[in-house]
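Re: export button greyed out
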Amino acid sequence: MIGFATPWVLAALLSLPLLWWLLRATPPAPRRVDFPALRLLRLIPKREETPVRTPWWLLLLRLAIAALAIVALAGPVLNPTPPAPGNGPLLLVVDDGWASAHTWDAIKQAAGDAIDSASRAGRPVILLTTAPGNDGAAPRVAGPLPAGEARARVDAMAPKPWAVDRATAAKALETARDIGGAVWLSDGLTSDGSDALSEQLAKRSAIVRVPDMRNASRLLRPPPIGDAKLAAHVLRASSDGETPVTVRALAADGRILGRATTKFENGAREAVATFDMPIERRNETARLEVEGENSAGATVLLDEQWRRRPVGIVRGASSEQRLLSDVYYLERALAPFAEVRVGDLGELVQRELAVLVLPDSGALDGNELTTLTRWVEQGGLLLRFAGPKLAQGGDALLPVRLRAGDRALGGSLSWSEPMKLAPFPETSPFAGLSIPGDVAISRQVLAEPAVDLAEKSWARLADGTPLVTAASRGNGRVVLVHTSAGPEWSNLALSGLYVDLLRRIVAVSAGVAASPGTQLLAPRRALDAFARLVEPDAAAVPISASAVALARAEPRHPPGLYGPEEQTRALNLGSNEPAPAPLETVGVTRAGYETTGETRLAGAFFSTALGLLVIDALVALVLGGLLTLRRPRSAVAALALLFAFSAHAQEKPAAELASKTVLAWVRTGDPTVDRTSKAGLSALARTLMQRTAIDEADAVGIDLERDELAFHPILYWPSTAGQKPLSEAARQRVNGFLRGGGLLLIDTRDGAASPSPALRAALQGVDIPPLVQAPPDHVLSKSFYLLNGFPGRYESGPLWVDGSANDKTDGVSSVVLGGADWAAAWAEDEAGRPMFAVSPGGGRQREQASRFGVNLVMYALTGNYKADQVHVPFILQRLGQ
Amino acid sequence: MTLAGRTSRAEALAARLPPLLVEAERVAETVRQGVHGRRRVGTGESFWQFRPYTAGDARIDWRQSAKSDRVYVRETEWEAAQTVYLWRDPSESMAWTAESSRPTKRMRAELLSLALAALLLKGGERVALPGSSAVGGRGALERLGRSLLTDSAAMPSHPLPRHSSLVLIGDFLDPLDDLAASLQVQAARGIGGAIVQLLDPAEVSLPWEGRVRFHGLEGEGDELVPRVGAVRDAYQDAFVAQTQALERTARAAGFAIVRHTTDKPPQDALLALHAAMRGERA
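Workaround output, generated via the alternate export path:
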C-alpha cells in the first residue's frame, strides 16, 4: 500500500510524452576530431543512414529516470498511516507515565507517524501528555502547533517515573476547543481518571492505541522486609496465558548476583520469584529488576532495611582469658556476614537486633527473663549456648527442658569416646551442610525426653541426643546449642562447621524493620523511567523518613534513594502503585501499535534514479565514442565497482586483514563515538608501527552483527547509551572471539568503569569471566613499557581483568574493562594533533595513555609472556656480577 | 605578417633547431654504424679491390701482379659527390598527431630529413633544399636545418640539376596528379630518388568509435560520421587504393617508396631510406 505526501507532484508525469518527443528529436552530440585524411572519408560511398535518433532503449531509460524523480518528489510512503480521524486540528494524547517506558519506542514512533499523517493533511497538532511534568506541572494542552514543532516536542518527550494523571488531563480537555479528531497513545493500563479521559475523547472521534497486553508493563513490588528469602512479586495487567518471567538481583556496582525465574500461571496476575542466595549475596543486593523490562516500575531498589541482620552478643564475665572466652569465638565466626555488637544484655535489648547470642549464662533472673521474653516474642531470635553455668539449672527461656548436670563423653573416668555429629535431618535449617570428620563433642547438656523433642532438634549427636534445639516463641524463636560456644566442651568452635551453623541460624532470623524516624531525607539518586539512576531533578524535595514507605512516586518525590549514605531509604515506585489492570475505554476506536510503521520510499526512488542516471552517462560516453568498449571487462568492472560502492563500503578482504595486525573497534552507530574510535585506533596502529616490531598495523571498524572477528587480536568496544542488545549470532561470534584468544577491551568512557544498563544488556550472554581489579603488577603494566597506571582520557580509574585462574588461556584475561576513554586519548586528527583534551591533562598523561595502548596490544599478542620474561635480563646481569 | 611577427616566428623555429639537430645526428649515428662506405667500384681515390685481369682492361697493377703468376687490375671505390635534394610537405595537415604522446608528422619529417642529411654529408654528399644552392662540408647541417624549418616551398616542379637525387617526405593523401607531374619532369632528366610516405597510425586504422564529426585541417570543412565503426572497412579500402596509386606513380618515375608511421622509431625509416638511396644510385 503506497501513499504520497504531495500527490499533486505526480501531475508532472503528464509531461513525460513531451519529454519523449524532445529526447527523440535531439540526438546525442557528436564528438569533434581533427583529421587530415578527410578526403578519403569523403570518397566512401554514402550509405543510407538511419535517421540520427536516440535509440529507443536509451529513451526509455531517460524517461524512467524522469518518472522516478517525479515519483520521488511526490514523497511515496509505503504502508502510510491511515489518516487520523476527523478534520481540523489533531489532538495527540500521549501517556508518558512509568508504564510507557517499556513500549516507549513504539509510542514515539506512533506519535511521529500521527504527526506526519496530520502534516500531510495540513492539520495542526495539539499535544497533551498525561503525566505531570518533571517540575510537577499538571498535564495541560499545548497547541495547536505546526507539525514541525509538534515533532520537535515529541522528540524531546521522555516517560516519567511516576503514574499518569488522567483525571487532570481530562479536566484540561474539557475546556479545549477546536479539536477535529484525537489519537490517544496509551500505555494500556487503567488508572484514576481513565474513564473521564476516554469520555472526553469519545466526544472527539478518537482512536486509542493500546499495546499488546502480553507486552504491557509489569510492576515489581518490593519483597517483604524480614523474609528469610528475597521474594519478588511481579504483577501483570492481563491474566491470560502462561508467561515465564525472570527477576534478577544486582549489586550496587551492577554485577548480577542472582536470577530467579518463575511464571505467571494462566489466569494469575501475580507471580512470585524467590531468590535462593547465600546471606552475603543477599546483603549485597542493591536492586531487583524484571529482566528485559527497563522501567522504573519493574525495578526495586533495596536499602538497608532488607539487609540488616545485626547480631548482639551478651558479654559474660570480663575476667576470662581471651582464647577461652566464648565471646571471642562467636565474634570471629559471626563477623564475616553479620553486623556484630557486643554488650550487656540490658543495653543490647534496647537496640535493633535480629539475633541475640547468649553464651553460657546460667539461669536468667526474673528481670532479665521478662525483658528477653518480650524481645523474643516481638520477633527476635535468641541463640543460647550451654556451659558449666547452664548445666547448673535451666530457666523458662529454653526450647526444651534440661536435665540438671551435664554429660561428659570421653573423660578419664568414662568408657565413651567424644561423640560425633549425626547427619542433619532434612527438615533442619542446617540440611545440606557437610560435617567434618574431626568434629567431636565431649560435653553437652541433655534435654528431658519429650514428645516434640525430635521436631525441635535441628542437630543431633550420633547417639541421637540433641545438639541444637529450637522452639518458636511468639513471633520469635529460641535456639539452644547444647554445648559451649568456645572450645571448652567441644572442638566445634574450632571447625568451619561452626561458622556455617551460625550463618544458617542468622539467616532464619527475621530482618529488622528499622524504626522509621521523622527526620527529613534529601533525594540522593533518582530513578528515571528507564530505571537508570540519575541526579534528582530540582523539583524533588526531601521526604520524611516515616513517609517513605507510604509515599507514591510523584514529581516531588521521584523513586530513588533518599538520605545520606549510611541511612539510605529507597522509595520504590512499586510499593504503592495500584496493581496494573487493562485499560477500559468506551466510545473510542481501539487499535494496537503494530499497524503503524510507515516507510518512506523517496530515498530509494531517488537513488534508483541516480543509478540509472549513471548508467545513462556511461551509455552516452560509449555512444559518443569517449569510452570504447573494446575492453568490456573494464567497463563491467567499473559498473561492479559502482554498485559495490552504492551497496556498502565493504570491508577489506580477509587476506589483507589476516596479513597484518588489524585492531578492531566496534561500530556503535553513534557517529561521534565511531569517529573517535576510528581516529584513536588508527593512531594507536601508527604508534605500534613506529615503536614496536609490528611492521604493519591497521584499524578497522567492526559491525558485531555482520563482521568476522577472527582476524583481530583486539576488539575495542566503547559503550554508548544507545547500545543495542546483541543478536544471538553476534553473541556467539563474540564468545568465539573470546574463546579463540581474542582480547576484548570494553570502555565505559565514564572514568569510573561502571557499565551502563544498555551495555549490561548487550553483554548479557557474553562469556564475561568474573572480573577483578587489575593489581599494580599485572602483566598489562609491563608487557612493553613499564607502567604505573592505565590512564586514558581520565587519569585514574579501576581497570578490571579476568579474575579466575583460567587454565585454557594461561591466565591471560580475555576481557579488559575500564572507563578511561582510551580512544579519545589516542585519537589524532589528520595533522597528527590530539583531538581531545585529557584530564587532568598534560603530555605525560597522553604519552602514558598511548603506552598503555601499546602494552595492551602486546598483551593481546604475547599473553603472559612478559609476566616472567621482563626481568630476565636484569636477573642475568645480576647473576653475572 | 609584419616584420616583427616574422622575426619572432623565425626565432621560435630556431629554438627548435639545436635539439632537432642533436636528435638528427643521434639517429644518423645509429644508422651510420651499420653502413660503411659506398662499397662499390667507382671513380674515387681510395683503394677498393684487386680484380683478375680480363681482356680489355687498361690499367694493370704491376706491383700486385708481380707477387703471383696472375695479372691483377686495381680498382678504386666509387666516390662521386652527388647532390641530394630534400623536400618535406609543408602543408597544415602535416602538423597533426592523433595522440599527444606521438610527434606530429611534420616533426618526424623534419627529423628524418635532417638525419638523412647528416648521414649524406658525412658520406661526402651535398645536400640541398629545392630552390636553394647545395651545401656540403662542415656546418652544412646547421645551415640546412635552419632553412628546412622555415621552408614552405611547394613540391619542385622544375627539373633539378643533373646527377642529383630527390627525396620527398609527406603524407601523400591528396590527389596524386601534382606528384605525378613533378616526378615525370624529374624522371625525364634521369633524376631518381625516394618517396617517404609518413603517416600517423590513426590515419591508417581510423581508431575512433561512435558518432564523430571529422574536421579537415586544410579548410576542407567537416564530415559527420554517425558510426565510425561502420565505415572503417570502407575507409581502409580507400586508404589502400591511395597507397597503391602512390606506389604506381613512384615506380613509373623510378622512385623508391618508403612507408613510415610516427609510432615507429625513426631509425627504421632512415635505414630503409638510406638503402633505397643506395639502390637508386647503383
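Chain A has six domains: 2-30+50-77+605-647, 90-214+582-597, 219-295, 311-508, 525-574, 654-869. The button fix ships in the next patch.
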